Amino acid sequence: MRIRNLTAAAVLGALLLPAAADAATKPVSAGTPPKGLLPGLPPTSFDNAFYPKRTTIKAGDSIEFALNGFHNVISVPKGQQAPSFVIPGALASGVKDAAGADFWFNGQPILGPNPQVFGPTGDKKIDGKALDGSGIGGAKWKVKFPKQGTYTLLCSIHQGMKVKVTVKPKSATVPSKGQDARRVKKQVKLATKLAKKLDRFKGRPGDVIQAGSDAKGVAHLAFYPAAKTVKAGRPVTFTMSKFSTEIHNVAFGPDAYIAELAKSFFGPEGLDPKTLYPSEAPGSPAVYDGTNHGNGYINTGILDAEKGTPMPTSQTITFSKPGTYDYFCIVHGAEMKGKITVVE
Description:
disordered N terminus
């Protein structure tokens, strides 16, 4: 009888104790809001941001990242620098132009994919002590946050794209699913308003063409202005948007040739040197007359807005012969394009 009474007491005690809460999983979208692209914007508009860009969970909870587009998610140990998207690999060799002449960048390194960025890394437990990354190509990446603290996770490919995760004690109260949804809705509204404002940009004064009109994660894959008239012999500066999260290049040449370069822009060995490097050797004037390199090809090389990289922010091309010339960003599939009209 005594044993029976003790068993009943134990059962009653178990019922009265608070149930251990199951670990929760919160969603974060990388690249676009959960419901898709920003509403009511031109197809050239993209948002290189996390939705939400700030989230709060409890120790032991997880986050499942939805990777929408060409993105990754990576957690870098505190005090360490994030690994580069690409790293120097084999040297370019035997690369010729349409006239059969060697390009100057033969002997220069090809920038290839960094395994730390392209492949999954770590144990999917974020504690700020080791490198953990989703890699590129997956649709989902779920990671656990065992310890309280504040963690910042990045996208290696798009400068400035990051999410802040605050991890509170297990006993703390964190925002509900509804509160998180309202935060995302507010972020989408602000991003949409900013995107529309940025797209109204008319371009900089003078003979300048800007690649993108970007800020706070919003990016436009367009040139500003897309069409411009300049005088022969006057240099035109192609420059990056100051707060760009993207990289671009500016290339002139036959449509079919540009289309082939766009297909091979990023291959197994890395970035195609015909797109990565400027077509004209360093120190040589970039003068365009429509016949360069046997087929009218001239390229600025890759430009970016990030400080500390070897890529320049701008390049200048002088147009010596009147005519109308199409130009493209090969990086973005040659769909990002514009037109230069050169007059006497």
